[in-house]
Structure formats: C-alpha cells, structure tokens
Amino acid sequence: MNKVKVGILGATGLVGQAFLWMLSKNKLFIPSFLVASEKRAGRSFKEEVRWLMPYSMPSDLAELEINKMDFNALEKEGCKIIFSALPKNIATEIEPELRKRGFLVFSNAGAMRREENVPILIPEVNPEAIELIYKQGYPENGFIITNANCSTTGLALALAPLVKYGIDEIYVTTYQSLSGAGYPGISSMDILGNLIPYIDGEEEKMIFETRKILKISSSIFPTCIRVPVMFGHLESVWIKFKERVKPKDIIEAWTQFEVGKNQTESQPSKSIVYCPEQDRPHPGMSFHGSPPGMTVYTGRARKYEDKIGFVLLVNNIIRGAAGGSIQNAELFYKKHGNQI
Amino acid sequence: MNKVKVGILGATGLVGQAFLWMLSKNKLFIPSFLVASEKRAGRSFKEEVRWLMPYSMPSDLAELEINKMDFNALEKEGCKIIFSALPKNIATEIEPELRKRGFLVFSNAGAMRREENVPILIPEVNPEAIELIYKQGYPENGFIITNANCSTTGLALALAPLVKYGIDEIYVTTYQSLSGAGYPGISSMDILGNLIPYIDGEEEKMIFETRKILKISSSIFPTCIRVPVMFGHLESVWIKFKERVKPKDIIEAWTQFEVGKNQTESQPSKSIVYCPEQDRPHPGMSFHGSPPGMTVYTGRARKYEDKIGFVLLVNNIIRGAAGGSIQNAELFYKKHGNQI
Amino acid sequence: MNKVKVGILGATGLVGQAFLWMLSKNKLFIPSFLVASEKRAGRSFKEEVRWLMPYSMPSDLAELEINKMDFNALEKEGCKIIFSALPKNIATEIEPELRKRGFLVFSNAGAMRREENVPILIPEVNPEAIELIYKQGYPENGFIITNANCSTTGLALALAPLVKYGIDEIYVTTYQSLSGAGYPGISSMDILGNLIPYIDGEEEKMIFETRKILKISSSIFPTCIRVPVMFGHLESVWIKFKERVKPKDIIEAWTQFEVGKNQTESQPSKSIVYCPEQDRPHPGMSFHGSPPGMTVYTGRARKYEDKIGFVLLVNNIIRGAAGGSIQNAELFYKKHGNQI
Amino acid sequence: MNKVKVGILGATGLVGQAFLWMLSKNKLFIPSFLVASEKRAGRSFKEEVRWLMPYSMPSDLAELEINKMDFNALEKEGCKIIFSALPKNIATEIEPELRKRGFLVFSNAGAMRREENVPILIPEVNPEAIELIYKQGYPENGFIITNANCSTTGLALALAPLVKYGIDEIYVTTYQSLSGAGYPGISSMDILGNLIPYIDGEEEKMIFETRKILKISSSIFPTCIRVPVMFGHLESVWIKFKERVKPKDIIEAWTQFEVGKNQTESQPSKSIVYCPEQDRPHPGMSFHGSPPGMTVYTGRARKYEDKIGFVLLVNNIIRGAAGGSIQNAELFYKKHGNQI
User: For residue range D38-78, what is the model confidence (pLDDT) as tens digits?
Assistant: First the structure.
C-alpha cells in the first residue's frame, strides 16, 4: 500500500519534531511537505532543527526540505492531510483558511478548540465527536480536528472510564514538564532546581476542554505548575464522585477500559495502565509503553473520607500533542478514509 | 548578657546544620554540646559534617567536638535546653528520657507530636499551646515541645489567619524539596529531572498536625510529591470555606496578620508575605526574608466557583525545622525563662 | 536458530538492567538465569528491580526469577556464557571461580582488568586481544574478558584511529553522569545543580586501561568530575601528537574508521560519528544511534598551537558497560563459537 | 562619612542585580542612578527586575527608579563613578563616550579589555595595572577599568601565586554555570540534565585575558563547557611548570598568598582558600566566604609525571563580575580617591 502523504506545519518546533519522529515509523502516513518559518525555507530539516527528542533523528526524514507556508504547494504535493503544530496566533489565521481550501487539518494548536463544531478528539474517549466535521461543511470544505491541550489529555483519558460514577468536583494540580513550553521556552535560570507556579492560560484550558471532551459540567479546580522535568506531565487529582466509589472500583474501571481496542495503529493495547507501586508513575516513564509515550499511567488510587485521590502521568509531547493528532488522523482514515 | 548554653542532638544532619547555622547568630542561645552518632564522637563538627547549607559554616562553631549521647555530660555542660534533630526511631526513645531527667526539649522529630500533652507549637499561630508543658509535669519534669512537620508548618501558618472564615475542606498538593529527606536521603537517579509521587507518612502528618495546631476538624485531602529542588516546599491549596470569602479577603487577612509581632528574635517582622506577581512565590526565594527562611510566602490567591485557591512557600529546613524549634525555645524563654 | 542461554550476575543493578534491556532484542543470546543478592532470590526481576532505563522493561524478561549465586544451578541451566555486572569486591572472588569452573565470563567489573592475561576488549579497537583467553587456560578452563571502564571506553575508541599519528600526551577532563555510580549511588543533595570534582579510582583506571587497550605508553592527565546528567559521559580532550596533525586529519580518521564493520550485531555501522555542529555532542544524544547508545560521538576538533583538542560522548551504561560486554561476547561467538 | 554616589548601567540584568545586592551593604558606594533599556525607564527597579539572587532584594534599593541612558542626568545626579554591566555591543559604544565625558567606568563588559591602555584589573593580582588610567588621559578624561571575564578571574587568581615557578602550559577545562549567560540566557531544554560543550568566545577570552593579567606568554589550551548549575564556575587545570613543583608547593603558595591583605572592603581576608577534602571545592560553595562569593577555592592539588593538576571554583557573578568591579573601584578610591 502506498502511504498517504501529509504536510506538517511548524515542523522544526518541539511538537513538529515529535510528528516526524512518530511518523517515520507510521504505516499509514508519510511526511512529505514540511512548513516552518520563512527564514528556514530552502534548507533541510536537519539543518534547521534543534533536535531535542531522546531518540535519533529519523535519517530518512532528516533531508526533507523546509518550505514556507504555501497553500498551492501543499496541494500540488498531494498533501490533503495536514498536521499542525503552529503557535496559537498563527494557527488562528491559517487553520481556518486551510479548512476553507479543503484540507483536513489535525491540529495540536489551541486556537480552534473553543469553536463549537471543532471536535477536541481523543479516539478512546469521544470517537463520536469526529462526526462534527460534517457540521464544518465537510466534505465540501475540509475540516479541523484538534487534540486536547497536553495536561487535559491525560486528565480526560484517566477520567473517561470514571464518568459513569458521576463526577461532582475535580481538584487537579499539575507538575508540567519543560517541553510543554516549546523551545527555547523557559529560561534555565527560572527553573533549574526551581518551580514556576503559573502557566499562562493552562488552568482555563483544563476546565473548558475537560468538560467539552467528557461532556460533563463538573466543577474543576486546577493549579498548573512548571517543574524541572524534560518530558511528561504528572497530575495529582482528587475527585468528589456523585456515587460511592472505592479505590478498587476506579482501578478496575481503568483496567477494563478497552473501548475501541486496537482501533488505530498508534493506540496502545492498553491506553490506561494502573501502577500498583506506591511511588509510581513518575515522569521517567514518559516514553514507556508501545508506541512509546502513548500510554497514560495512573497510580496511588486512595480514598480519604468521601473523596478519591490518584496521580497520573501523560507524555505531553506524544500522547498530549503529536501522537494525539496522529491517532485522530488514523481514526478519521479508518472511518472515512475511503472518501479522500 | 551571657548566652544560654544549648545541646543539639543529631548535630551533623541537615537539620542539625541548620540549627548551628542559625544559632551562630542567635543572641539568646549558644550551641555548647553537640551529639551525633557514636562513631563520630571525639572529632570536630567540621570534620564530621557534610556541610550542605548555601552559606559558609560558622567558623566559631566548626571546631566544636561531637559527643555521643550522654545525659550526664549534657547536664554537666549546663545544657538544660535541648534542640533535637534526631531521627524518629531514636527520638522516640531519647526524648521522653530527656524530659524525665528535666531537660527542656525543643524537637524537630515527629516522634512525640501525637502525644496529647505535647504541643505542636508555632508561636504566631498557637502560642497558648505552650502551656501544655505543665501537663507534662513541668517544672518537676522537663518537657517536650515539637514544631510541626515541614509541609504542615507552611500550611498551618498560611491558614491561621483564615480560620475565622470557617474551613470546611482543604485540598493541598505539595512540591517538596530534597532537603526534607535528609542526607544522603534521595538517590539522584530517582529525582534528577524527575518526580517521586509519594512521601512516606507525610500525608497523614499533614492531616493530623494541621488539625491539632489550628484546632479545626476540616477535611484535608493531601498529596505529597518530591521534586528536584534543594530547599523550600511549595504547596498548591484549594479551600472550601464555610463563609463567602473573596481573594482580597484572604490577602488582607495575611497582610494584617500581626499576632505577636516581634514576639521573639527569630520571628520575622511579617511572618506571611503575599506576592502579588502571578508566578510567585517559587523555591528560589526560600532563603529570602529576615531572618532568612523564616517567612512564609503566599501567592496566586484566586476564586473559582465557591472555592479559594492559592500557593505557598515554606523553607522546610529553617521555618519548617530548625528555625521553628529555635523560635519555640525563644517563646518559652520569653514567657517562662525566669523559671530556668 | 536457538538462542544461546546466558546468565546475568548483578541483574537488578543499573548495568544489569541494561543487559536485560539490550538482550531482550538480541538475536544470539537470551537471558536465562539471573543472579542478584540473596535477599532478592525467589522473586521476579520485575518485583526486585528499580527500573531506571528510559525505555519500558522488556515484558518477556520481567517475569524471570532472581536466583542467588549458584555455580551448579548456572551449569544446570546451560548458561556457559556469563555477563557480570557485579560490584568489584564480589567480582574479585566470583569471576576467577567461574573461570576455573569453565564459564566464559564477559565482565563489566573492574576487578580483573589489571591481570595480564585478561583482555580489556573493544572489538573495533583491539580484537586481537581476545586471543589472551588461551593464556587463561581456555578451553580447558573458562576465561574472563572485560570491557573497559566507561570513561575509558569512549576515550579509547576515539583515540584508536589517531594512534597512528603518535600520541605523546593526553589531557582528558570528564563530565560523568550519575548512572556511572549505580543505584542508589550519588545523593541528590550532593549533585542537584552541583558538581562533584572527584570519582574514586577513576583517574587511575583511565591511565592504566587506555594504555593497555591502545598499547601505548603516552602520558595521560585525567580529571574526573561528576555532573548532574543521567546518562552519558562527556569528555574534553587535548592531545599532543608526535606528528603534525590538523583537525581535518582527525575528523577524516574518525570518518574512515571502519575496522571490522558489521563485525557483530551490536556494533553500529559507524562506531565513531563526528558532529560538525559547534556545540555537539551533548549527553542528550546518549541513546542516539543504532543500536541506541553504542555510537561514540566526537566534536569540536580544533587546533591551538601544537595541540589538538576535541570533545567526545560515550553512553556509559550501554557502550561503556552492558553493550560493551555483549559486543565482546558476540565477537567471541563469531570467532570461536563453534568451540562451545 | 557620606557615601559616594554611583551609577549602574544594565541594572536589571543578572550582573546588575549582583551590583545592587553587594552595594546595598557597601560602606563606600551607594547606587544612585540606575540605567536599563529604555522601555523600563520610569518604573522602579523592583517592578522591572526578574530577581534571581539567592538572597532577598535589598529593600532600600528596590524602589530606585530605572532611567534610560542619559549622560547629563548621570552627571547631574553626581555619579562620577559608573559600574557597567552592559552587553558587549552596547558597551562598545557607550563606555568610550563615558570616558570622554570624564566618567570613571568600572566595567564588567568584555568590550574594551583588548584595548592596550585599558587594564584588566584584579587588585590582588595586578594592582599596578591601575596606573594605565593615566595613559587613557585621566584625569583630563575619565577612564575605563575592566575586570576579567568570569572564568578567567578564577584562573588568574589561582595562578597568580604560581607564576613565580614559570608556567609553560595551561590546560583548563571549565564547568560554567548558567548565570554566566545572563537572563533569559540558556534554554532549559538545552541544559536540564545536559551539557553544552561550547561557549561563544569564551576560550579566546581565557587565553588573551589570562596572559594580559599575569603578564605571561604561556600556551593556554581551554575547553569551555556549560553545566546545569546556577552559580559558580568550576575549572579543572593541568599545568606544565618550568621549574620542579610539588603539590605541597602550590598549596603553600596559595596559603601564603597575602598580597594586599585587607586592601579594600570587598577583598576577603584570604582571596584563595585551598580545600583539603578530596571532593572539594564544588559550586554549592559559591556563596561561601566573606564577603560571600569573593573567595576563590582550590582543591585536588596533585602531581602526575611532570604536571601539576588542580581544580578551582569562582563565583562568576560576584568575584567574576560585579564584585570584581566593585573591588576595582575600591582600589582606585583608596589609591586616588582624593582626586575625585
């Protein structure tokens, strides 16, 4: 089978790198047109990227040329499917234009998530949300499908099997890694042996996106804090359920969470893995699992009075960004790929 | 005035070092008898300590001799006041024995905090608890006064001015520094660029001690996590108050918190300082304030729905350990010093 | 083909983990008998290991049982080939005993490297040294083949193609990662945001082993320093050559270094890769290359007056430990495997 | 005595902060006019600074107003003495202009160090170099006195007492802290748990400046590498002396190094302190000594064959930057202060 050519916007950034690294091994898609800022155009990916992934740069993709944004060139190259790792302000302009021109945009940018007809899609959680693309005018137009903000992705996945118990209140405090801020992102002088107790816009995103994905109206009380960790967001969660729930119930719910098993290539055999050890999960496990970085790990399920507490780990760059978008594109392709 | 001679138990450990560093500048007390494990006895403090404070070792104390535990020698040296930085299991044995023999023990160890007549004392918060010493048999016997666990100290101080609003529920998630685990404590392989989402016994301490100090029965939901920071515990807090409270109310309560101002030498002019910047406080400020490390910093006061959120920073080694004990001894000396 | 069963001594330690991780994908060898300290015996690898590799634990090996040291059981299991990740003092006793009993020991321990007939083997550098096994009494006896100390491995590999120019003096200063000290190894209080300018025995090893491997008598001036990095030793080197050498000469020598290409499975297609970027290599690249961690990266080749300077990076746990031993076993098997 | 008013250029940067912090306790000088980039002008120091020192911001200076660069205003304010923490490119323009207008410039910038008549002054090392100001046209003009680059300062101080033995060759490899790159400086993604084996221009500075300060023509082979440490540069040094020298000779030379003892207020009683412990000094000691950060610590003196090796630690922000300039100004004031 010929692989489907895809374009990658924001290819040299951290999420762009994650796209290339994951796609270099993908059986369905192949990166074919890379877009980055105009000053990089004409040079190779290898020359322009500050490679930060803990694995080697895929040698076959290293020589791909960087292009400036060019709708016609994308079309000419045959890249109907677009992965967007653009900064918010640029995404706000370009993604709707791509949709208008018929492109199928799988976006990691936060820009369009608040638009009613744009799904925030996590295949294991709300696969039905993909149908919103028809409300965006597809197939006459293209569409935009977003994945959730990185910290929200972990929370929404861990909560998905628990929604059935009724969720009244969510207290979530995050330990977010540096890679979430991109490159160069955070100054080493601010974070080496230190913490930054504020992440612009993050708490609002967690509230809005968690509700939209899970279709719940629970109260959510988030505190988002940056920690000196390279990859992986850890989150501490306390939940007030409507029903009586014991720790073993939520562990069982996670263990049995098998919705859409093997739905797509990038979906791990178990999307949520509970760690029985008392001091797990930790960010050192961010690239564990298969494919690396796609599993959400939970741990420390415990009850105190009427609340349930636990911690979770999500790889913010893979599951919470590039991998999420790729998984969304795979789901689309599986369901509606014959239409392309 | 002649300074009052004091003994320090566990002198070469991290808290022991903090005792010596703070006392080297204290006007009331002077370290006179240092106790550490028997194998260190007979050598100088300087030779036996792995000095870890960010400041120079006090040169006048560096030459003090290390002794093994010896009740008679302590007495002979005239050290009636004892600062204890002993590990829990040793403290459990030795501290009651010291009390029986008439010593006045100011302990940083968790061993005795659950005993009904042993106060967990924070001079600005519950100075009246000092009177419990009489229930321990003082002045016929000696007594034990403890300071709170490090993370509890910060929480109890920040909450003290807010108790008046009625506290229903406390959700507290900690970012605890390495020094809290002592030396050698945590392996670098476990924590460099990583987190450990569990601290043995810490969550139970926060619940019990916060209630005992503040004389409240609120529900407390703690998650305690170790972060790669050297000094200073950061805590993220969400509170459900009984009354309607706005962020400006709690900021005002902190700002006006002046109970017992200038009570003792080691008490800062303002024990709680609110940081108006949106990304403060952070652990890099752990040794700010005067005396360094005795101020608790709060920040990010905000309201979401009916809950109030904020963050706080406490220097775990100074305010949350050695400094707390010293302040307690100063308070005792001020109130009852004429009895010694 | 049936894989060759091997025993792993010190299986739960950091190097032991690296052995299991690498061997889980090896086509020739399969871990079949794991040895660790007696108190761990009878439980599974998974239960007893503090897994520290940046990749998932191999699920097929996770359930292997831990055994105490038992020569007969090893024999019974059919494990003639032994990989040793024992601490030096234990290795000193056990490895000669294994040899006497006919086992083929590939050791990462420093214990036997100074014995004249024990080779310190790096297949690309001194493959002929393998013949020393006959001087150890093989095949009547077994033998011990060691790989070099981690920092020496990187230096010896980088220097191998340069020996032809005559090496008078080597000034080498290391930036050694925490994993080199094992687990728990170095206290986080000593190294977070800090350095330790001394590594016990390391400088002596670099001098002795580099000379033995390269068969040179150059003067070597090493300084070995621990840095807060998890994996990968960086080394800064200045060389006084006997001949006139330019930076481009050494770059060319590295580039053309193809001795024994594809000799063994674990040997990368290029064992030394020169990085043309001015700020490379760096430890973030420790698991780059294929197999991950087996490539030595060099960079910053430059001349000042009559000396040549460069930097190099070696993955201390893979190339400098487990991977080195495995590669040695593969070389033995290729050359003399028919004898087993 | 009235303090002498001084101006500080680049006041909100990292070195600027160090100037303010040190001067807040200085008995001779008082910061009176702060200059930073134009966009900050009109606001207070406190509002505009990202305070990064490990100590509290001096409360008396926190309210000082930030000004844009204005020669007349500086003059009007009576600030004849100027401390410059300007970036190189701006310093190149402004410092000569200041000199022309009669200001006495004590500069931390590298801009003018290569000018023949501009001294690179370290009071304990080359106090006589101060006389170069007359070759700059002083007192008709003002003058520029620079302090050395941070890593050079430590090296030159440690070598000063050793020059008498004749220095043939210096091999120096640095472990430079993040603060040396200013703020925001180095991306956390580049350095957390990592190293950067290149610092632009640094190696050239070490060669040129060390020779100029010590008036030697030795061969110097530097490698400069950035490490994840906040404050303090560690350096590993191997020296080829002309004479036969033993480790005890250099330890003695350091110990007896008393040139100009108590010359100025900011000069410590011992400018070089040798650490006898085998694993010292380390960057955790950067703010040790009195005044904090002004002592250069050496350690690990050892001989191998005919070379002498040692390590040294210099606080790059204090001794290697702001403190060096202040000390220079104090020396000038002591020698020629009556002329102002």
Answer: 999 999 999 999 999 999 999 989 999 999 999 999 999 99
The bridge status of strand D296-304 relative to strand D307-314 is: antiparallel
Judged by a CB distance cut-off of 8 A, whether residue B288 touches chain D is: yes
Residue D279 CA to residue C186 CA, distance in Å, equals: 13
Distances A27 to A24, A260, A318, D71 between C-alpha atoms, Å: 9, 19, 17, 67
Secondary structure class of B282 (helix, strand, coil): coil
How far is residue C66's CA from residue C70's CA, in Å, rounded to a whole number?
Answer: 11
Q: Output DSSP code: residue A86.
A: -
Do A196 and B279 count as a contact with CB atoms less than 8 A apart? yes
Q: What is the rounded distance in angstroms from the CA atom of residue B69 to the CA atom of residue B73?
A: 8
Is C289 an interface residue toward A (CB < 8 Å)? yes
Nearest C-alpha neighbor of D177 from the set D287, D317, D322: D317
Closest C-alpha to B216, from B169, B158, B272, B147: B169
Q: Are C230 and B183 within 8 A, CB to CB?
A: no
B161: tokens are 């001015």
Nearest CA in chain D to A184: D187
d(CA A173, CA B238): 10
What count of other Cβ atoms lies within 10 Å of the Cβ of residue D184? 15
ipTM of predicted complex = 0.96
The yes-or-no answer on residue B150 being catalytic is: yes
Residue with tokens 């410059």: D84
Dist. CA A326–CA A291, nearest whole Å: 12
Q: Which two tokens stand for residue B64?
A: 């003090």
CB contact under 8 A, C191 and B189: no
Neighbouring C-beta atoms of residue D28, cutoff 10 Å: 19
Query: Which residues are CB-neighbours of B21 under 8 A, at least 6 positions away?
Result: B53, B55, B57, B58, B322
Is the separation of the CB atoms in C198 and D312 below 8 Å?
no
φ, ψ of residue D201 to 5 degrees: the values are: 80, -10
- Compute the distance between CA of residue C216 and CA of residue C163 in angstroms, rounded to an integer: 8
Best of D286, D288, D290 to substitute, by most chain B Cβ atoms within 10 angstroms, is D288
> Any CB–CB contact under 8 A between C287 and chain A?
yes
Give the residues across from A272 on adjacent strands. Answer: A296
Q: Is C268 touching A (CB cutoff 8 A)?
A: no
- Cα separation, B141 vs B145, in Å, equals 13
CA distance D204 to D202: 5
Task: Read off the tokens for A338.
Answer: 């014959």
Do the beta carbons of residue A145 and residue A133 sit within 8 Å? yes
Question: Chain centroid to CA D330: how far?
Answer: 14
Element containing residue C15 per DSSP (H, E): helix C14-23
Residue C328 CA: distances (Å) to CA of B75, C14, C93, D221: 66, 19, 22, 36
Of C56, C28, C59, nearest to C45 by C-alpha is C59
Residues of A in contact with B281 (CB under 8 A): 197
Backbone angles phi, psi at D122, to 5 degrees: -130, 110
* Average pLDDT per 10 consecutive residues for chain B, totaling 340 residues: 93 97 96 97 96 94 96 96 96 97 95 95 96 96 97 98 98 98 97 98 98 98 98 98 97 89 85 96 97 97 97 98 98 84
Cα-Cα-Cα-Cα dihedral sign, residues B134, B137, B139, B145 = negative
Counting as contact any 3 or more CB pairs under 8 A, the partners of C are A, B, D
CA quadruple C295, C301, C307, C313: dihedral sign: negative
Answer whether 0.90 is exceeded by the pTM: yes
Q: 3-class SS at D35?
A: strand
Q: How many CB pairs under 8 A join B and C?
A: 62
Q: Is the dihedral of CA D27, D29, D34, D36 positive or negative?
A: negative
User: Would you call D249 exposed, middle or buried from its count of C-beta atoms within 10 A (0-12, 13-18, 19+)?
Assistant: middle
Q: Quote the minimal CA–CA distance from B292 to chain C in Å.
A: 20
